[in-house]
Amino acid sequence: MVLDSNRRPPPVAAVSEDPAEISRLLIELRIEHRDLDAAISRLCADPHCDELQLRRLKKRKLRLKDAIARLESKLIPDLDA
């Protein structure tokens, strides 16, 4: 899988309210997050790795983690207080 560190996760507001659609997107984002983790591990093992690329991949991974957390919170029903 080719990882594009400049691609941003979809804005949560742009995602439909359909739980099935959110779940599908969550699966995709988790797979991409896992792939980024593997790519970052491979780069860290290389003593001559590109530090800029590594930093970009780590930022992308953090953006994915945030997007995953926001989508997971959309799946939790709001409770009226």
Task: Sum this structure up briefly.
This protein is mainly α and 81 residues long. It is built from two helices and no strands. It has helices at residues 19-45, 51-75.
3D structure, described in words:
The protein is mostly helical. The chain has one domain. Helices cover 64% and strands 0% of the residues. It contains two helices and no strands. The longest helix has 27 residues, at 19-45. The chain is elongated, with a radius of gyration of 15 Å. The model has no long low-confidence stretch (mean pLDDT 86).
Main attributes?
single chain; 81 residues; mainly alpha; 2 helices; 0% strand; elongated
Count of helix runs: 2
- Total count of domains: 1
- Classify the helix fraction into a percent range: 55-70%
Q: Give the overall silhouette.
A: elongated
Spans where pLDDT lies below 50 across 5 or more residues: none
N-to-C span: 45 Å
Total count of strands: 0
If you compute it from the alpha carbons, what radius of gyration comes out, rounded to the nearest whole angstrom? 15 Å
Strand content: under 5%
Biggest sheet layout = none
Element pattern in H and E: HH
Quaternary class: single chain
Return the structural class.
Answer: mainly alpha
Query: What do the pLDDT scores average to?
Result: 86
